[in-house]
Amino acid sequence: MLAMKMVAAFSSRQTAESFGRENRGHLLAATSDETGHLPFAALYLGATDDIEHMLDVADVGVYLACERTIKNQPLSVIHASSLPGSVGIFTMVANPSMGAAAADRHWRDRHAPLALEIHAAMTHYYQLGVAHRFSGPDWHGFALCCFATEDDLRQRFFKSKEGERAIAEDVARFADTRKSPRRVIAHITRLPD
Question: What separation in angstroms does the CA of 59 have from each of 13, 41, 47, 50, 183?
């Protein structure tokens, strides 16, 4: 299933939560106490009729993205009590040798099936392919790899060493692994909740 959503990245969890409560949607807030080393402290995923306000408060970046549901149901229909326990957010910068459009197609058509096979403990999987950047870094997508617990995300991300190698090799085909920011481990909440 596809849906167009706004993605806003914030350096402050509190600002992101306040914006999310005003606009409804999903808040993905980093679980780390210290977030200065992360590319963002929180993401808002949803809709707004006031993009100017979003641009004012989302100090890291604002993007229009196509939300692709790869595993489980779309976030918009999952009951709040059934949301995943932990989310690994992987921000993608396209491999310059492919370009953004080809990288997105590879991510959707080739990487997604591989990820479903290798990340056996993953409960939900969403790809947010950036269609337009309003502000912020030139990021091309966000993968939301969801697990029941943070321990599962950290300890059971790959089903084998061979799988880990296969994922790394495939990611290097479509993503610029040096420019793509580090993973953010987050908790997801539907707002208001």
Answer: 11, 11, 17, 15, 19
Q: What are phi and psi of 21, to 5 degrees?
A: -70, -35
> Measured between alpha carbons, how far is residue 36 from residues 31, 80, 97 in Å?
13, 29, 31
The amino acid sitting at 138 is D
Q: pLDDT digits over 87-111, tens only? A: 999 999 999 999 999 999 999 999 9
Domain range annotation of the chain: 2-191
Class of the 2-191 domain?
alpha beta
CB-based contact 25:189 (threshold 8 Å) = no
Predicted structure pTM score:
0.96
Distances (CA, A) of 131 to 113, 142, 152: 22, 12, 31
Model pLDDT for residues 66-79, shown as the tens digit of each residue: 999 999 999 888 88
Based on the number of CB atoms within 10 Å of its own CB, is 77 exposed (0-12), middle (13-18) or buried (19 or more)? exposed
Cβ contact 114:154 at 8 Å: no
Return the structure tokens found at 177.
């692994």
